[in-house]
From TrEMBL:
Protein's name according to its UniProt entry: DUF2059 domain-containing protein
DUF2059 domain: residues covered: 88-145
Length: 284
């Protein structure tokens, strides 16, 4: 499960799933002009790349149910590409944003991320999102953190404030656990896991490790920040921290993170269902 707790440093706060789904149910469809503005918003903030990076986590899904991706042969690649289709995920995000992100919040976020500093930050974050070697990133980030602590750098404090602002409601861990729960329940219902799972027992088992996962994730997000922003000055990091701490920006992140978590849960449920239709070993 540790793999699921990495790679979330930029978008790490859950808006309540049920509340988000109620908003989706009543929101109006995005009009053409709105859609163009929202597409531009996704691009300038880097949220489009964050959505694309969801597909990179698919490789960890079989481990959750005790099987290997290789058991599905070439069909594994086909299924994951279909389930994590970028156009589908972007469309889901746009439809939700159209009913939840008001113009003032959109303008506030774009005003910062469209600046030279904002675009440099997005470029750096996008690169990190799409790097697949989590181990190398984690180790290099941990090395940077250790060096910063040794020299008494103020960057550690900025990174901690930055991550606290992004996850002000301390909900990222609960979001990951909820995604795991929904994936495993879907895997059970689709026959990927032998025998039915008891929802209450599974939830209790997963949440038993909540505090431990929170500690691991705090260390992971700190290392990820140190790695992602290693080429930025202290002044740049301070400016970004203050931008993230602004209440309108926190509301923007609340919405973006809620959307990403829901799309992740939706797509991993779909993956579990799709895996139930495949015959293991026949396509090797």
């Amino acid at each position: 499960m540790d793999q699921w707790s990495r790679g979330f440093a930029r978008l790490a706060r859950l808006g309540v799933f049920s509340g988000l789904l109620l908003l989706v149910a009543v929101m109006r469809p995005a009009q053409a002009d709105d859609r163009d503005r929202l597409e531009a918003f996704l691009n300038v903030t880097g949220f489009d790349v964050a959505l694309d990076s969801i597909a990179l986590m698919a490789s960890d899904a079989p481990d959750m149910v005790g099987i290997r991706a290789e058991e599905f042969g070439y069909r594994w690649k086909e299924v994951t590409e279909e389930v994590f289709d970028r156009a589908r995920m972007h469309g889901m995000a746009l439809e939700i944003l159209a009913g939840t992100l008001d113009d003032d919040l959109l303008d506030h976020a774009v005003e910062f991320y469209a600046t030279p500093l904002g675009q440099r930050l997005v470029e750096a974050e996008n690169r990190v999102h799409m790097e697949e070697d989590d181990t190398a990133k984690r180790e290099e980030g941990a090395r940077i953190v250790a060096a910063l602590r040794e020299e008494g750098s103020p960057r550690i404090g900025y990174f901690e404030r930055m991550n606290a602002a992004i996850d002000a409601s301390d909900s990222a861990v609960r979001a990951i656990l909820e995604i795991q729960f929904r994936f495993l329940m879907a895997a059970s219902e689709s026959g990927v896991i032998d025998g039915p799972l008891d929802a209450g027992a599974l939830r209790a088992l997963l949440w038993e490790n909540e505090d431990e996962m929170r500690d691991r994730m705090a260390a992971s997000t700190l290392a990820n920040s140190a790695y992602a922003y290693r080429d930025f000055s202290d002044e740049d990091i301070r400016a970004y921290t203050r931008a993230l701490e602004a209440p309108p920006m926190q509301r923007v992140y609340e919405l973006m993170n809620a959307i990403q978590w829901e799309i992740m849960a939706n797509r991993f449920e779909a993956l579990a269902i799709a895996l139930g239709t495949l015959d293991r070993g026949e396509e090797l």
